[in-house]
């Protein structure tokens, strides 16, 4: 694969990710950021969000499922598909 093609795919992926994240609520985006960008543990996130570690894990799982639904149907709002 040529470098230019890889760059196009990378840009496409970035746009898809941004579109997916824009469908989330502020709290859902904060969960994604805390876990995957800031690499916080579930315990750290629970303290930050003021809830139990299991609640954080459940909410993050819901967000991941929503993002998966969006990637399968980018024209629709993933939150309305549940």
Describe the structure.
The chain has 82 residues and is mostly helical. The chain has a domain at 28-74. Helix content is 73%, strand content 0%. The chain contains four helices and no strands. α3 packs across α4 (53-72). The radius of gyration is 15 Å and the shape is elongated. The protein starts with a helix and ends in a 10-residue tail after the last helix. Mean pLDDT is 83; it is low at 76-82.
In short:
With 82 residues, the chain is mainly alpha-helical. The protein contains four helices and no strands.
Main features:
4 helices; mainly alpha; elongated
Radius of gyration: 15 Å
- Which stretches are poorly predicted, pLDDT < 50 over at least 5 residues? 76-82
Q: Helical residue percent?
A: over 70%
Distance between the termini: 37 Å
Order of helices and strands: HHHH
Overall pLDDT level: 83
Instruction: Please state roughly what percent of the residues sit in beta strands, choosing from under 5%, 5-15%, 15-25%, 25-35%, 35-45% or over 45%.
Output: under 5%
Shape: elongated
Structural class: mainly alpha
Largest sheet: none
Number of strands: 0
Q: Please tally the helical runs, counting DSSP H or I stretches of 4 or more residues.
A: 4
């Amino acid at each position: 694969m040529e470098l230019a093609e890889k760059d196009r795919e990378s840009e496409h992926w970035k746009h898809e990710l941004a579109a997916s994240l824009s469908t989330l609520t502020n709290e859902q985006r904060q969960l994604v950021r805390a876990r995957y960008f800031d690499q916080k543990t579930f315990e750290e996130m629970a303290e930050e969000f003021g809830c139990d570690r299991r609640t954080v894990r459940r909410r993050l799982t819901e967000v991941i499922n929503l993002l998966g639904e969006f990637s399968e149907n980018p024209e629709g709002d993933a939150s309305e598909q549940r």
